[in-house]
Design a protein that fits this description.
Blueprint (H helix, E strand, L loop, with lengths): L1 E4 L2 E4 L4 E7 L14 H13 L4 E5 L12 H18 L5 E5 L2 H10 L3 E4 L5 H10 L3 E4 L17 H18 L5 E4 L8 H9 L12 E2 L5 H7 L7 H13 L4 E4 L2 H16 L2
Parallel strand pairs: 3-4, 3-10, 4-5, 5-6, 6-7, 7-8, 9-10
Antiparallel strand pairs: 1-2
Helix pairs in contact: 1-2, 2-3, 3-4, 6-7, 8-9
Length: 274
């Protein structure tokens, strides 16, 4: 299972790590926010040194209840930091987390290598992906972020996620887009029980042709369950990552690269034992 990332073939036979960088003032986990160029570069340098395979940069908060911002504001937040990151870390694989096609095209023009689209599949972004032929992360969600936590009902969540992916992948393939990563959208319009149901049944999600990404890091499914804050949820997150690895996940999107990398190393060693 591979993706072509600007000529670099990424093999997911060993799970990969994507480090989270937030250029927002209101992301739910404060240490992932970078408020100065110096802090940003040190933060990314540490993630890369710890073994991050990708860096995912977001300039618009996607947490439930986050205040919406304009495309111009998102571009203003992203422009200078992205240029600096690409200059200082030219070998890094940079993903940009957005649901706006203008932001996606801006990022790819600058030199970003992936787009992480949390909108649930924005066809306007698909046109940009087809133009630049870069990998695309397709996230399962039911509509725009401000409303998606409200009145979402699932009768069979795994079946509905797979049906969603099947329809979207057909549209992507029709545009010549084949380097696709699937994200079942933990926390996007799902209850605590539904999030754990997804985690428990990861092998049933997707179709065995595309890498599967999961974003569990410090999320409320842990903090609400055991009554802790995101700051206190590293141990719970590592347990979640281990469970996801045991269910066959290929890509972990994380705040804590070192600890996630340790989970992968322990899991791979365990897997190889006869």
């Amino acid at each position: 299972m591979t993706i072509n990332c600007k000529g670099d073939l990424i093999d997911f036979s060993e799970p990969k790590i994507m480090g989270i960088v937030n250029l927002t003032p209101d992301s739910f986990y404060a240490p992932s926010r970078c408020s100065s160029s110096h802090a940003l570069l040190k933060y990314i340098e540490r993630m890369l040194d710890q073994g991050a395979d990708f860096i995912d940069i977001g300039a618009c908060s996607t947490r439930p209840g986050a205040q919406s911002i304009t495309i111009q504001d998102e571009l203003a937040r992203l422009s200078e930091p992205l240029s600096l990151i690409l200059k200082i870390f030219p070998q890094a694989r940079i993903s940009v987390d957005t649901f706006h096609s203008r932001v996606a095209e801006f990022a790819l023009e600058k030199g970003a290598q992936l787009i992480n689209d949390v909108s649930g599949g924005n066809p306007a972004i698909w046109e940009i992906i087809a133009k630049y032929q870069v990998p695309y992360i397709l996230t399962h969600s039911q509509g725009w972020l401000q409303n998606e936590q409200r009145n979402v009902k699932y009768e069979n969540i795994i079946l509905q996620i797979n049906r969603f992916f099947s329809e979207k992948i057909a549209g992507l393939n029709a545009l010549g887009i084949n380097d696709i990563i699937l994200d079942p959208g933990i926390g996007f319009g799902k209850s605590l029980q539904e999030n754990f149901h997804i985690l428990r049944h990861l092998p049933l999600i997707g179709f065995g042709e595309y890498p599967l990404l999961i974003g569990l890091s410090r999320k409320s499914m842990f903090s609400k369950l055991i009554d802790i804050s995101p700051d206190e949820s590293l141990n719970a997150t590592s347990i979640g990552h281990t469970l996801a690895l045991m269910q066959g996940i290929q890509l972990l999107r994380v705040h804590d690269v070192k600890e996630a990398k340790e989970c992968v190393k322990i899991f791979m060693t365990y897997q190889r034992i006869q």
